[in-house]
Amino acid sequence: MTRAWILPVLLVLCGSVLSTRLFFKGSPGTAAALLLLFALFACLNSPLIFPRSISALEAQRRSAADGRPIVFWRPGCTYCLRLRIRLGRSARRLHWVDIWRDPAGAAAVREANDGNETVPTVVVAGRPHTNPDPAWVREQLSPPA
């Protein structure tokens, strides 16, 4: 199992255990609500809500061809989640690189951030931007006026 799935699986397991205890104590409604809440947190912390990740090399090749930004991210990062949610449908127009799956992506992030794996790091026109405002990232997707 990759480490991207460790937190979501733990959340589902903990939610299941707590819900089972509540169910057998006579609170099936509370148990169901708690299990649903844990499942939601697991989904939000999983790679499922992010567009499909590609390698850093492939992202650089595609970005050079179409000019779209590259987002280096990792599962479980609240700032990455905030960026993804605030971008909405526009997120599919970016090239996403999961640094936990791609060592070259992790190296690119460390190079841009003084040796730290600080994400999200967004590369626009070859220049890295660490944890940029989602509105600014959305502007980078718009064609120049």
From TrEMBL:
Q: Where is the signal peptide?
A: none
Is Amino-acid biosynthesis tagged as a keyword? Answer: no
Report the superkingdom from the record.
Answer: Bacteria
Q: One Pfam annotation, family name?
A: Glutaredoxin
Asked if the keyword Transmembrane belongs to this entry, the reply reads yes
Q: Which InterPro entries match?
A: Glutaredoxin, Grx-like_ET, Thioredoxin-like_sf
The residue ranges crossing the membrane are: 29-50
Q: Which SUPFAM superfamilies match?
A: Thioredoxin-like
Give every Glutaredoxin domain span: 71-127
Q: Which UniProt keywords apply?
A: Membrane, Transmembrane, Transmembrane helix
Can you name this protein? Glutaredoxin domain-containing protein
Q: Which species expresses this protein natively?
A: Streptomyces cathayae
